[in-house]
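Exercise 7b. Backbone tokens:
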């Protein structure tokens, strides 16, 4: 899911944690290339938590980062900023703070503290080097032979690199792509079955019976679902980076060629990518002219200077409506900080460009202006500001009209989403006596699409604006059996589930890429009136822990009967990429049924 989703983002946007947020350029472009001190960023006046880092050792063998964060921030009230384990399974971690005072308080509180029968030790830790500068130094120190090898390793053009990063399967025949993704889903289910058998040994006889029926899988795997005549130009949302084209040295809008950690901050063109629709490509090309003519610089991840940072496009295929969200870093606290008047001038220039200037040709339906910068502790950054046209665009899915705002979640591939929701409805086995509990509902697309097949829909969503649009979408489409509620799933799911008017309750879960919060899993186990659950995973590997936890034996924490898988289907929402949506249908398993081979 994309709620803040990002399951299928096309670009790599990882930047080093060590780089401070706001910084003026240290010199002209020529001097910048001469930076050789990987710790120079520590001498700058702006904030970086690397200045206030400690190392904690003696951690227990089994612990979670969430548990450690709770210990530090809730129990010890220390207010850590970042927790960074050096590698998975490490018995020591780095923890960063926001001030010298906070760091000293943490050292006193943690050193000698006993946690899970282990005595912790804490000491100051050295700051990490700037990875981009570190890599630059390493490259300069290579011998001639190594340098030659490095040059031979990647002689691809920028277009080829972008194509490989964003659409690695674009040269593979589509039928072959589908076979690859079906096999990937199969392997994931095999792994799930094995891990479930280990986590809940009482399920082993039932799982053995399932595997005998379904060729080694814990449940039936249906044929992969796709829209074969819509595998090109399908994306209805893209986030483009504004930066510098390394070949032409011009301001450019496109996708990152690599990551900051790998030493590549350049931006490459997207015009040859198969999955981006022509309307978006035209918008990028036209707005690139505006950025190049602007007096403001593009954002530089290395020096944290410059202003133009991101262009987000959202497109309604049926309505041909286009929304653009222009992202700018105002450089608050630096010599480059834009005044309120300067920001207003930028907004007016954007309005003029898209109404009377060259941008008029792309017929923008909705235009927003967004401040993009790192937020301070406890700070809530402002939502995108509407500056031109309509406040939303409209898209049609399953015959229904949906309002889409800048922050709304909407499946990235509209046509295939229709098939996705049809399959969800079939797996859920809905009827007029069913209450559908739509968890992480976004603007209500799943619940509203399936409302005609069930008696009641109850939707939960974290983002307040999305709930507002879900209600408006229900009213616009004259759907009266749906209610939507705002809040964290793990906090309101119990109270919302109590509103079910039908005995049969089916939950549909469409969480962000990382999966459901553990508290939500615990509550889903506790709610005995849920008969079935359909889980939509845009990254099934990341959601695997959720799958296993749903099937663990009842315990003090995981009360209620376990959920077991009964059917699965892969839906190709992301042609030409390695991603694929996996839909799993779970059913409650009464412990009394375990001696039976009945898998109904």
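Sequence design result:
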């Amino acid at each position: 899911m994309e709620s803040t989703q990002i399951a299928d983002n096309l670009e790599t946007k990882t930047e080093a944690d060590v780089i401070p947020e706001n910084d003026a350029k240290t010199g002209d472009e020529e001097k910048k290339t001469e930076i050789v001190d990987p710790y120079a960023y520590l001498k700058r006046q702006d904030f970086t938590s690397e200045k206030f880092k400690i190392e904690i050792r003696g951690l227990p063998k089994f612990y979670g980062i969430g548990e450690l964060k709770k210990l530090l921030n809730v129990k010890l009230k220390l207010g850590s900023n970042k927790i960074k384990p050096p590698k998975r399974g490490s018995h020591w971690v780095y923890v960063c703070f926001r001030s010298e005072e906070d760091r000293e308080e943490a050292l006193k509180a943690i050193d000698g503290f006993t946690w899970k029968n282990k005595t912790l030790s804490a000491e100051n830790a050295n700051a990490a080097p700037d990875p981009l500068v570190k890599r630059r130094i390493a490259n300069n120190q290579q011998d001639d032979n190594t340098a030659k090898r490095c040059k031979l390793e990647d002689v691809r053009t920028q277009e080829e690199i972008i194509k490989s990063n964003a659409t690695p399967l674009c040269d593979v025949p589509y039928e072959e792509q589908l076979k690859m993704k079906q096999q990937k889903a199969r392997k994931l289910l095999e792994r799930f079955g094995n891990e479930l058998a280990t986590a809940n040994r009482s399920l082993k006889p039932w799982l053995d019976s399932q595997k005998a029926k379904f060729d080694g899988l814990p449940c039936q795997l249906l044929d992969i679902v796709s829209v074969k005549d819509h595998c090109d130009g399908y994306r209805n949302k893209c986030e483009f980076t504004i930066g510098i084209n390394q070949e032409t040295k011009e301001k450019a809008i496109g996708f990152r060629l690599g990551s900051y950690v790998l030493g590549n901050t350049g931006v490459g063109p997207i015009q040859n990518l198969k999955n981006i629709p022509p309307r978006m490509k035209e918008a990028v090309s036209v707005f690139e002219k505006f950025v190049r003519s602007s007096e403001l610089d593009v954002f530089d991840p290395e020096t944290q200077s410059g202003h133009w940072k991101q262009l987000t496009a959202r497109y309604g295929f049926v309505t041909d409506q286009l929304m653009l969200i222009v992202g700018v870093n105002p450089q608050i606290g630096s010599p480059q900080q834009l005044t309120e008047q300067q920001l207003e001038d930028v907004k007016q220039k954007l309005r003029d460009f898209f109404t009377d200037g060259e941008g008029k040709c792309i017929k923008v339906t909705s235009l927003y202006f967004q401040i993009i910068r790192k937020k301070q502790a406890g700070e809530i950054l402002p939502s995108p500001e509407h500056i031109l046209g309509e406040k939303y665009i409209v898209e049609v899915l399953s015959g229904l009209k949906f309002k889409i705002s800048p922050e709304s979640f909407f499946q990235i591939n509209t046509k295939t989403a229709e098939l996705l929701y049809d399959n969800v409805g079939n797996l859920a086995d809905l009827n007029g006596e069913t209450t559908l509990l739509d968890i992480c509902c976004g603007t209500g697309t799943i619940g509203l699409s399936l409302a005609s097949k069930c008696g009641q829909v109850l939707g939960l969503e974290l983002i307040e604006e999305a709930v507002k649009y879900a209600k408006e979408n229900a009213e616009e489409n004259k759907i009266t059996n749906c209610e939507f509620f705002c809040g964290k799933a793990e906090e309101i799911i119990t109270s919302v589930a109590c509103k079910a008017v039908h005995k049969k309750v089916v939950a549909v879960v469409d969480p962000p890429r990382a999966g459901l919060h553990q508290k939500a899993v615990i509550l889903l186990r506790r709610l005995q009136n849920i008969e079935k659950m359909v889980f939509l995973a845009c990254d099934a590997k990341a959601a695997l822990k959720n799958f296993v936890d749903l099937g663990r034996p009842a315990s003090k924490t995981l009360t209620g009967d376990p959920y077991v898988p009964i059917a699965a289907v892969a839906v190709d929402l992301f042609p030409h990429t390695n991603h694929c949506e996996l839909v799993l249908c779970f059913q409650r398993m009464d412990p009394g049924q375990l001696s039976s081979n009945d898998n109904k």
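Instructor comment: The mean pLDDT is 85. The CA atoms of residues 9 and 238 lie 8 Å apart.
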